[in-house]
Amino acid sequence: MVQKKRIKRNRAGFYDDEDEPLLSDDDSSEKAFSKEAIKLGYSRKHLRIRIKEEYILLKRYALLLFGYFLALIYPYPIVMRNFSFYLHHTMKDYVEDESTLRHKTLYDLGHQVFPDLSQNKIFLRMNELANSFLVTAMVTLVISILFLKRSKMGQKSRKPGEIANITNISSIGMLFRFLTMMVVGHFFRVLTYPLTSLPGPAKHCTNYTIESINRPTVLSEIFFRINSPFENCGDLLFSGHILAATTVVLCLNHYLPIVTSMNKSICFRILLMIFKVSVWLCLGLQIFTTIATRNHYTVDIWLATLFSYMNWTWHYNVILKRDPVIRKMKSFSNEKIY
User: Fold this and answer.
1) Contact 79, 195 (CB under 8 A)
2) CA nearest neighbour of 23 among 128, 150, 126
3) C-alpha–C-alpha distance, residues 277 and 283, integer Å
4) Whether the Cβ atoms of residue 255 and residue 269 lie closer than 8 Å to each other
5) For residue 71, which of 174, 182, 189, 227 has the smallest C-alpha distance?
6) Whole-prediction pTM value?
7) pLDDT tens-digit profile of 201-233?
8) Partner residues linked to 148 by β-bridges
């Protein structure tokens, strides 16, 4: 019978370098990786441990995550969007005689510079593809964090008894950070709805017949009326679509170098750089198509990108400086992780 090695800790409370608290001597074949490495691992045992850790984090933040999902499913996209449409006024509402109306939209620099592509199906499709690419990249990165090999519980973990990989990131932490920024961003976004209502520049808003059909006529309708985003007017300042896209790009730009930091091959570094440039190009393409298809004014896009960056900076440096990871805490002393 193979006797398991006893794990020792020094006076500072850290584990000795030669000991591995996660694996016994029976699992020596799984100890090929260096504790200094930050790389993907495919060991079934490591993956099981990582999933267990993420599950514990999920239980810890379950209530908040549920509230975030609920806010992003009903109050923001339905109630508040309908409320903005209820307050919406077209340009004809400001003149006595519609025949004297010279312009159906406000002056906009982006609309003057970019051609009107609102009827161009190719650019509309390109916008959808760019959005799908960003979402797929985000989901892939969240899943890939599950495969990060873990470090020993030692000085690299910075705190005695900490159970985490040396990157100190987690899938639930990344998801929690992203959803927090989205909820905060949409909270400040809906505050602008009752302040100033801009006449929508989209074709379904400048067509007054279609606008009157889709628009809620009584206040009670805002709670149950469901319009497509391509049928809604009024929720302009600032763009929720660009808010989400910019937040995704900032998350990818932050987490991707951490996950791939130990792969030093030149070819991989080049591919990583190409991917990061592609992500920013997708954001630029979405900004261009959003203005060119007349779904938003340029000021909506400018404020959305500016607020997204400020929201990320504030959240990362003040609210949540580090991702939530599993540590040996009293509240989890009874949790069996491995």
Assistant:
1) no
2) 150
3) 10
4) no
5) 182
6) 0.78
7) 988 888 888 888 888 888 888 888 887 777 888
8) 40
